[in-house]
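User: Reviewer 2 asked us to show a designed sequence for the structure in our supplementary figure. I'm pasting the structure tokens here. Could you produce the per-position amino acids so we can include them in the response letter?
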């Protein structure tokens, strides 16, 4: 919340002050005291020498960790005109062309910049494929920069390391994405992602929160179009199972699929195990075994 501006001489409030846009000052309308000097102008530029048809905004691209240079670098424009709009001579044009070439080369002057470029191009593709939010993307880029800074990328593939960082960000932000989904979207083996994931968590000392089993229930129920009543009953059944600590050490998606399967049986509905197994990304044997153990623990048979 911004601080209220008040004149120190006559206690006039900000609403009765005059703002001088030319000098950048806020002046008291009663006594003429300059209350604020050098205010920052955040409006449009009056002139744009390069292209008068473009937007005259004074800002550039927003700051982002998911870009190799964080959108902080500049580039030499392709126009061959000076500040007055006149064409520059041929000698100066040749010099500017050479400067443009070296400017473009300097953007990727070291291996770190090239590494970030490759990684964040993949992250941008995964953002579109999986519908990731900007917060997940920025946190993934931050984690990847930390991993690269500590030298954990050496000897490993860039893609697998980035997807592992993405999985860590999803877990920390509560986004329901499994390693299998990320592996399928990135076309990288699950084994490679899981191995780097364990190394990153151990090296950085991250405390990864547990997977929310209720989100897994919602995810599976949406895939096979189950009713809200069935989903609500599955949540209640999951609460009972969590109180007994029966789900410890079990795959959350497989366990959630078994809970939904038992809930459907309690309602007298018939759903094929293969449908729930496909929605949960596990085998039918997993659903069948987990459902049998759940019934024994909760005395449902």
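Assistant: Here is a per-position design you can include in the supplement:
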């Amino acid at each position: 919340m911004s601080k209220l501006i008040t004149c120190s001489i006559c206690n006039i409030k900000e609403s009765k002050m005059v703002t001088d846009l030319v000098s950048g000052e806020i002046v008291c309308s009663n006594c003429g005291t300059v209350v604020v000097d050098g205010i920052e102008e955040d409006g449009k530029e009056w002139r744009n020498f390069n292209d008068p048809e473009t937007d005259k905004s004074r800002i550039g691209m927003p700051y982002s960790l998911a870009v190799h240079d964080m959108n902080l670098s500049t580039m030499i424009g392709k126009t061959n005109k000076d500040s007055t709009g006149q064409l520059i001579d041929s000698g100066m044009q040749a010099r500017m062309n050479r400067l443009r070439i070296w400017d473009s080369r300097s953007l990727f002057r070291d291996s770190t910049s090239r590494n970030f470029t490759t990684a964040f191009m993949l992250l941008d593709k995964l953002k579109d494929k999986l519908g990731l939010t900007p917060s997940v993307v920025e946190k993934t880029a931050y984690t990847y920069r930390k991993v690269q800074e500590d030298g954990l990328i050496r000897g490993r593939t860039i893609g697998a390391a980035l997807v592992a960082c993405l999985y860590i960000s999803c877990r920390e932000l509560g986004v329901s994405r499994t390693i299998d989904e990320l592996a399928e979207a990135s076309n990288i083996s699950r084994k490679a992602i899981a191995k780097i994931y364990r190394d990153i968590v151990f090296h950085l000392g991250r405390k990864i929160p547990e997977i929310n089993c209720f989100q897994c229930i919602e995810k599976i129920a949406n895939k096979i179009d189950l009713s809200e009543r069935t989903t609500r009953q599955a949540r209640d059944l999951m609460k009972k199972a969590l109180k007994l600590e029966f789900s410890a050490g079990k795959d959350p998606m497989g366990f959630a699929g078994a809970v939904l399967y038992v809930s459907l049986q309690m309602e007298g509905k018939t759903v094929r195990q293969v449908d729930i197994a496909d929605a949960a990304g596990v085998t039918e044997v997993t659903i069948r075994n987990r459902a049998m153990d759940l019934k024994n623990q909760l005395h449902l048979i």
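For the response letter, you might also mention the following. The chain has eleven helices and three strands. Residues 213-298 form a domain with the Cyclin A; domain 1 fold (CATH 1.10.472.10).
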